[in-house]
Each structure stands twice: as structure tokens, then as C-alpha cells.
């Protein structure tokens, strides 16, 4: 079964949206079907990250294969070319570092700044089940209240902080549904077993987060393909692309799975070919 035939897939429903919101959602998820978001926002809490020390140089060869970049305003201003044709999702929650309490985020970027930068969407993290759950959910609600006025979609990021064991299907389904109930237009969450239980209970499009870098390329392509088969509209990946020894080939392979319905075993040949030529 190809992703386009998947009965659990949830095309973007733009009914009832004004033109500005419809236009931005179309840029994020072309045709309301599939998307590849490239995450390069890691420095907001990690600082310099391997292969992302010079974000402009990292992004330049990859941007053409992504539908959107997930990025902070600082990196967008200082490192991303203004003539880029890729949609921009601006991270607007932060104010913490990996040395402290990751859940203690606040909104960092105003609507005016987002409009001035020309972003199509914004992203806010929520930490459901943490001691700061209420604060992060109110960050999301406040952002939605502000950005909906201007037709800018808000993407909720169901973060788990340092507690990676929380990545089970029941927890992620709850987190996604709560984010959607608050008004998020898109939800980013981690892949898990029985992923359709997450997508079927979330009334807005779901994109899959990548998590830590893995050396198994086929594993990455497989969980992306399986997640789409089970109803995801696409991915929001970073380290498994730009920390790869052949990042352009990996970006091409992911795009083949997402937009061209390639099977993992077919897409992996793009990466293998690049390795053979190296």
C-alpha cells in the first residue's frame, strides 16, 4: 500500500481558513498531502552542535530538498540567505539550556518579529507530564491566540526533555491530542509502535520527529515510511540529515520516501550510491 492510498492519512483540511492561513499551510504541506521539514533549531538549547557550528553552510546544499526549515530567529537573520525559496517555521519557545531544566521555556519571539522576518509558521514546545506542563501548555495557547489573528499556523512540538522513556504511544497520543485541542495547526511528535493510534486520534496533521542521530540509514528511512503509512503527513528531521556523512544524499532519499512514495529499500540506494562514489 502506498502512502497516497493509506486510509489513515490525514490531508490538511483548509476548509474555513482565510486566504493567508490557507496559503501558509500550502507552503508547509504542498497539496495538503506530504511534507519534509528540516530542523536546524538545535542550538537554542544545545549551543554549538556537531555539523551545525556554521548553520548557513550546513543548510545551503540541503534547503532545496526540504519544504520548510525549522529555525530560530537568530540563525535565520544571520545565516540563512534571504532569497531562499524554502518555507520558514520559526521556533518561538526557548530561554533554557541543556545544563538546566529544559521544560522551563517561555515565548521568545513576538508576532511583529515573525511577520518582519517573513516566516510562514512558528513552533512551540510542550512538555506534558512534567512539573512545568501547565506553563508550556499556556505558552502554546498564548501563541495560538496571538498568531491565529494574523493567519500564521502554530506547530506544537511534543517534547519529552531528558525523559526519553516517555516516548510510548499512549503518552504521545495524549500529548498530540491535547496540543490539537488547544488549537495547534500541526503537531510534531516522536515515532512509536502502532503509530496509527496517534494519527487517528489527532484531528490535525502529524509530523514525525527524528531524535538522536543513528548510523542505520535504512532504519531512519523505514520509520519515516512506516509513519507515513500509518497516517503521518511527513517528518521534521535534523541530525539524521545534516550529521550524516552524505547529507545531501540522505535528504534526497528522505524526499523520495515522502514525496515520491519510494520504499525504504529503493530510497537507500540513493545513499549507497553516494557512499560508493566517495
Can you offer a commentary on this structure?
Helix 9 (217-229) packs parallel to helix 11, helix 9 runs antiparallel to helix 12 (264-277) and helix 11 (247-260) runs antiparallel to helix 12 (264-277). The protein has 12 helices and 10 strands. The chain is of the alpha/beta class and 278 residues long. An 8-stranded parallel β-barrel has the order 1-2-3-6-7-8-9-10, surrounded by 6 helices. It has a two-stranded antiparallel ribbon with strand order 4-5. Strand 6 (121-126), helix 6 (133-147) and strand 7 (154-158) form a beta-alpha-beta unit. It is 40% helix and 15% strand. The protein starts with 18 loop residues before the first helix and ends with a helix. The model is unreliable at 1-5 (pLDDT under 50). The protein has a single domain, classed as Alpha-Beta Barrel (TIM Barrel), CATH 3.20.20.70.
CATH architecture: Alpha-Beta Barrel
* Strands side by side in the biggest sheet: 1-2-3-6-7-8-9-10
Low-confidence regions = 1-5
Q: Given the structure, what is the number of helices?
A: 12
CATH topology: TIM Barrel
Explain briefly what this protein structure is:
This protein is 40% helix and 15% strand. It is α/β, with parallel strands linked by helices and 278 residues long.
What are the SSEs and their pairings?
Blueprint: H1 19-28, E1 35-39, H2 43-46, H3 55-59, E2 68-71, H4 73-79, E3 87-91, E4 93-94, E5 106-107, H5 111-117, E6 121-126, H6 133-147, E7 154-158, H7 169-182, E8 186-190, H8 196-199, E9 206-209, H9 217-229, E10 234-237, H10 239-242, H11 247-260, H12 264-277
Parallel strand pairs: 1-2, 1-10, 2-3, 3-6, 6-7, 7-8, 8-9, 9-10
Antiparallel strand pairs: 4-5
Amino acid at each position: 500500500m502506498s502512502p497516497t492510498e493509506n486510509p489513515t492519512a490525514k490531508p490538511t483540511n483548509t476548509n474555513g481558513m482565510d486566504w493567508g492561513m490557507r496559503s501558509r499551510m500550502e507552503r508547509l504541506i504542498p497539496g495538503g498531502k506530504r511534507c519534509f521539514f528540516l530542523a536546524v533549531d538545535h542550538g537554542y538549547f544545545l549551543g554549538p552542535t556537531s555539523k551545525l557550528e556554521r548553520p548557513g553552510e550546513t543548510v545551503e546544499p540541503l534547503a532545496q530538498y526540504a519544504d520548510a526549515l525549522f529555525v530560530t530567529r537568530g540563525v535565520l537573520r544571520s545565516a540563512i540567505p534571504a532569497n531562499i525559496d524554502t518555507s520558514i517555521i520559526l521556533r518561538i519557545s526557548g530561554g533554557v539550556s541543556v545544563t538546566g531544566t529544559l521544560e522551563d521555556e517561555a515565548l521568545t519571539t513576538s508576532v511583529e518579529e515573525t511577520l518582519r522576518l517573513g516566516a510562514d509558521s512558528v513552533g512551540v514546545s510542550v512538555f506534558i507530564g512534567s512539573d512545568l506542563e501547565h506553563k508550556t501548555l499556556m505558552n502554546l495557547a498564548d501563541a495560538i491566540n496571538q498568531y491565529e489573528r494574523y493567519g500564521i499556523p502554530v506547530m506544537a512540538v511534543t517534547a519529552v526533555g531528558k525523559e526519553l522513556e516517555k516516548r510510548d504511544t499512549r503518552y504521545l497520543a495524549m500529548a498530540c491530542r491535547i496540543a490539537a485541542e488547544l488549537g495547534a495547526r500541526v503537531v510534531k511528535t516522536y515515532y512509536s509502535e502502532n503509530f496509527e493510534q496517534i494519527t487517528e486520534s489527532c484531528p490535525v496533521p502529524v509530523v514525525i520527529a527524528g531524535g538522536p542521530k543513528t548510523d542505520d540509514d535504512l532504519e531512519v528511512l523505514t520509520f519515516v515510511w512506516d509513519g507515513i503509512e500509518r497516517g503521518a503527513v511527513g517528518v521534521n528531521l535534523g541530525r539524521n540529515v545534516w550529521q550524516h556523512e552524505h547529507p545531501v544524499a540522505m535528504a534526497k532519499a528522505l524526499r523520495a520516501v515522502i514525496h515520491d512514495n519510494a520504499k525504504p529499500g529503493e530510497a537507500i540506494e540513493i545513499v549507497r550510491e553516494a557512499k560508493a562514489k566517495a
